[in-house]
Structure prediction request, 193 residues.
Amino acid sequence: MLCCMPGVAFVPALLVTWSSAAFIISYVIAVLEGHVEPLVPYISDTGTKPPESGVFGFMINISALLGVITMCIRYLLIEKQNESSHFVKSSCNMFSLCIGLMGCFGMGIVATFQELAVPSVHDIGALVAFGSGVVYITLQSIISYKSCPQWNTYFVCHIRMAISVISCIAFIPMIVFASRISMTKIDWTPGEK
Prediction:
């Protein structure tokens, strides 16, 4: 089974490293090209115009693929642990995997459809990615608590749940503010709404 093979722990680390590099590299290119302001630009703005749009799209699609692999490994790991402990229903684990895969699909949409080229599709992809991500991390936190103390420590569970709570709290204003703003361009001039 893939999840029981030594060395698969590098996949989540690669996911975080690659995703961070995707945001940083596209940000640096966008700033150097003068396409965004250096101080805290909207993430999608750093992947809207060429040449950074190509880098952003390519790297985020690879991140989505790495996310799928990571989630499948987690799913298989829980299934293997569950064979001896029976701490969670297999259907709950499968539901969590499906929600996570939806989030990765949303990431692929965000990467493929630039913010200004096809804004409605980009926004739907972002909503699916972030919404599914929040649900996935919450379900994984619950599964972690159910596997204590045999397969997890309570410290790890508390950290996961704290990240889940922060994600949930951050998701609410994202929805509220995104629904109030109609973003149609990046460059603004003084006096514009």
